[in-house]
Amino acid sequence: MKKQVFIFATLATALFTSCDDDSASQVIEEEVITTIEVTLTGGGETITLVSRDLDGDGPGLPVSVVSGNLTAGTTYTGAIVLKNETETPAEIKNPEILEKDEEHQFFYQTTGTVGTFTYTDADSNNNPIGLTFTLQTAATAGTGSITFTLRHELNKNGTGVDQGIITNAGGSTDIEVSFPVTIE
Amino acid sequence: MNKTILGAVFALFFVDFGFGQLVKTISGNVKSGGAIVENAVIYVGKKKINCDVQGTFAFTVDNSVDEFTVVAPHFEKVVQKIGSEPVQVYQFNLSPHAEDLAEIIVRKKASLVYDVSGSNKLNAKTLREYSAQNLGDALREINGVNSLKTGNNIVKPIIHGLSGSRISMLTNRLRMEDQQWGTEHAPAIDVNGLTRINVVKDAAALQYSGDGVGGLILLERQIPENDTIFSQLTSTAQSNGSGGALAATFVRAKEKGTSYRIDAAAKMFGDRRAADYVLSNTGNRDFSAAAQLRRKLKFGTLNAELSYFQTETGILAASHIGNATDLYFAIQSQKPSVVRPFTYDIANPKQQVSHLFSQLSLEEELGKWNSKWYYGYQRNNRKEFDIRRGNRDNIPALDLTLQSHSILADFKRMFQNTEVKLGISGGYQTNFANPDTGVRPIVPNFTKTDLGLYAISDLELNSTFRLESGIRYDYSRITASKFYQNSRWIERNYQSDFGQFVVFENAGELLVEPIFNYHNIAANAKVSGQISENYRIEFGATALNRNPNVSELFSDGLHHSSGIIEVGDLRLKQENAVKVALNQNLTWKASTFSLESFLQRIENFIYLQPTGFLTTIRGAFPVYEYKSTTARLFGADFSWTYRFSNRFSFKTAASYVSGYDVRESRNLIDIPPFNWHSSIVVKPFDKSDFTLELRHEYVAFQNAFPDFDFETNIVQNNELSQVTVPISRPPNAYQLFDLKASWPFQLQKTALQASLGIQNIGNQSYRNYLNKQRLFADELGRNITLQLQINI
After folding, report:
1. Cβ of A52 and B617 within 8 Å?
2. I need a surface site. Which of A117, B143, B313, B716 has the fewest CB within 10 A?
3. B565 touches chain A (CB under 8 A)
4. How many contacts (CB atoms, under 8 Å) link A and B?
5. Is residue A46, in this structure, part of any structural domain at all?
6. What is the domain range of residue A92?
7. Residue B118: what pLDDT?
């Protein structure tokens, strides 16, 4: 009995005193995309649409800024840059998309008066990626919104997906941001 | 005894009319501990002689035969030398087969702590039938036990409507330590190698835990107590998933000296199939091994056990979604958005889980006290691999390691008509969330220290009634270390209450190291009465507390598999549960009825409540917060078994649970719908144990569900429109038919059993409310199982 009590007590003491403090290490989230910058160049001007969400799934809301109004009846060349701005300097995430370009695609959805988007890039299967595009703005002035959606592991062979119709794309959304726009 | 004489007379009859050509007449009977042994068979060389229903046999042999063998299902075989006398009468007293015996011994021991009515246990024989499946599936055999699933392989038991960390699970006395990790974590143990499972629904076994608010599951892997040596091999093939399992056991047991047991099992499955499509990425690979050693020494019995389990499980491809819009489209599409051709490959998302379990114990008589001392060490690891960008597919998105040390001492002795049990336990646990994942972990680093003390008495009031009562004290201390985003810390308004725990601030995040202390007292009392030989009644009341687990306290972030943001709450208090249970058992003629009913009230019941929406750069996500409320549960499990004859029996069992949130005046989520199981067992042949079983399962539509549907905005036809994401409505009622045929037979001296099973005969497509993936895909379609069991 004595022996057991001794062993038990020793083990118990060991358990209760062995408080090796395992402090958490800060996780560097290299993979996250915090920022989307859309540059529209046309009609001698450059308009940028930027949305930034530094805390990701934290409660802070994304902050979106549109630099100016678009001109009616104009063809804009569009380019999208994705960044992780939790790192300094900010990391450009476009190469990660292009590396697995057949798994990614941008969709552009509009409401109100905006215009027509056309993909200008393609992956190895000749399906669109959408990091670059053209926007033919509507002929008349008005207001509307553009929603940029980046889908990952989607079905690019779904009906209408290569035409930019999101309905049958499936997959999971990596980016979904809306910008209000004015056509003048 | 009369039968023996009759047998002898019968034998003499043979001698008289045998014209002296037959040299010896052998007769006798086969019993075990005075009871008749059914279906005993005598082998004389290759000749087979069946005993009659009373276990009586008689046969003649010539001089060339010098031995015969007595074999009966569930009993150790006996090889008998034949003497030289012309008339020989034998009385065999067979020993139960090792695995059955282990069960009997366990039952005897167990009955002193709690009474497990017949329907609440699974024996080795039943468990073996589930060799290719998992523990959660096997547990569903018990009326009132359901499973909370994430797909087909991640299955957690639900007892009386409660699951997860509200269920304490123990293996050979040691608590399994991994249920803190949230709903997508199944108990890390293989069903192969287990010799018995007890489910304690009324939460009354305070010796084992003080926080099993929903109940306890006691898993046992035992070495038989008697002298025996046997090996078992079970091979199972299944059509659905085109896979199978191979399990082997070797046991060498001695009443004195050294005994050991070795178990090993492996499983492999490819994609499962629903009725109409392949469930892509639902394969799994499991491996388990266990070694046990028992040494009987002069002063006591030493037990050592080491076991290991690992699994790799694919997560249904179609369930990988992003935001609320994706969820909306996934639900709308009815069919999974990803259906690929069948493959054995497991792609991301997937889970890899491993569990190392070790235990050392010493049992010793100390004067009038029986003492048992235990030390246990467990190591759990869980890795989740997600679909990631930038060649990160091989870096786990979650990598948790939980290490637990425990020490226990149990003492018991009899004082006249009272059995007293006392005990003390201590635990030390660390959880490490690997930061190299590059994803903020859902469960933080923490250290937990536990101390428990209990005292139980089991008093025989008179020949009819027994009173069992117990009290238990538990102390837990949790020290956690977690980085909070500044924005979350502010949004939760934690600074005023927990500001003292902030260590430093860096790059928009705060390192917080909070300390929580919990003191809990649990108590129970139960009266049981064997009113007559046919009627038994138990009435018990239990008060328990459960500490909030680490996911409930610390969760903060996106849950990829469900597309929701889960937010824990540091302010959560212990759950306080009171449960009363009334169990009745009645035997009437050939029928056995059992009715178990319960009523439970839980204050500070912790659950996930949808509280709103969060817009991120990835779109909008519903936010669920861990909140506490007052829950009320009640229900009943009913079963009726009717034995028409030795050849034909019928069983029906129904289970109903109601769960209600008293404070919010709405139903609780994930409460099992009414379910009703029936089976007919037929043994068509007298001389064979061939058994045919037809099962029927009916699961009702759960109309008591909370409405957690939410609205989201999607762009349709050039317009922003608001749609409802219908996540709440449970699937429709369904019924399934299963068929099982098993044929035990003897080949020389090897006992075999071949069985064929068909699950979901009609290849029904249906969905299960308690499956987290019900929003994305149907349940499994038809499955044909072939199994061969070999006992040597």
Report:
1. yes
2. B716
3. yes
4. 191
5. yes
6. 33-183
7. 42
